[in-house]
Design a protein that fits this description.
Two copies of one chain form a homodimer. Chain A is mainly alpha-helical and about 180 residues long. Helices cover about 60% and strands about 5% of the residues of chain A. A two-stranded antiparallel sheet of chain A has the order 1-2.
Chain lengths: ~180, ~180
């Protein structure tokens, strides 16, 4: 298998269990609070991860195989995905994410992608031509961007509790950097 | 128990298993590469976490109980801690961290800290008076700052692989923010 794809899958396989070990049963101060107006709670992030698992990665990979650059990917409804999680417990969302990820990886493996497939192009609605390889690498990096966001959102809840240590903790200086943080 | 202390312990209990689920068995591209000169690999971060577990949190909490503000905490040798990990596998470090954390939490519980103890002051070598409560909150936030760093360091390895997605991924814009990132 392509070395990059192997590293991507190795990470994708581990994220659900890592989030489960970190988050299941945590007090709500860590999981139900955000970083201020128009920011996400940890629970919102989990809902977003489930949504992208179902609507984004595998559907886009299939579009590349089927249509190449001739059709644009559907844009992702980021806020809609978060509304879908309302009324579900965090534990429910962790289970749902684990199941969705298992299915996504099964689907990916069933594609039996060749080196040539990884070089195929699709068309992103915002920035045009992207390869299958870039899409799949982004799937893994997207896990990391949200793990980064989760650790920052959690740390934000302790910004006063840590007193003078706040300025020595990198995570408390992080402003998020982008809409996809 | 003090509500803050309860939240702190809940997080501290979960970090070793979360890091284990994320990191054990990952290909070295994720764990043995850094973000450039004078930055840490994931393995270095694990060594640092073990070192702070042994030298920092509980020893400082004991100093607060014993000496209050009359004695300064010993400064932490950050780079020394990283040298200690040389020659150990990541798996070994994950086990060592889990054991050190269990011991640290046992020691913390054995202190039976009262609300009054949490308000006691100690003296930090860089920024002076700090309370027991701030020290213990920082223990948890320190886990988060390094989880934030780990996710960023890992994402850095895919900065080229993701192609045009790089500028939409918050974690790839993160510069670390501090020496303690």
């Amino acid at each position: 298998m392509d070395q990059n794809l192997e590293s991507t899958i190795a990470l994708l396989e581990r994220t659900p269990a890592a989030l489960d070990a970190l988050l299941r049963g945590l007090p709500e101060i860590w999981t139900e609070r955000n970083e201020g107006e128009n920011t996400w709670t940890v629970r919102s992030v989990m809902t977003h991860l489930i949504h992208t698992e179902e609507e984004n990665w595998i559907p886009r990979a299939r579009m590349i195989l089927q249509f190449g650059e001739s059709r644009e990917f559907a844009p992702l409804d980021r806020e809609g995905s978060v509304r879908n999680g309302q009324g579900k417990t965090l534990e429910h969302l962790l289970d749902e994410f684990a199941r969705a990820r298992t299915k996504g990886l099964d689907d990916l493996r069933a594609m039996n992608l060749t080196t040539e497939d990884l070089r195929r192009y699709g068309r992103h609605p915002s920035f045009g031509a992207v390869t299958m390889s870039q899409l799949l690498a982004t799937w893994a990096a997207h896990d990391l961007t949200h793990l980064h966001q989760i650790s920052r959102t959690m740390a934000f809840q302790y910004r006063e509790a840590v007193g003078p240590w706040a300025r020595f903790l990198g995570v408390m200086q992080c402003a998020g950097h982008s809409a996809s943080a």
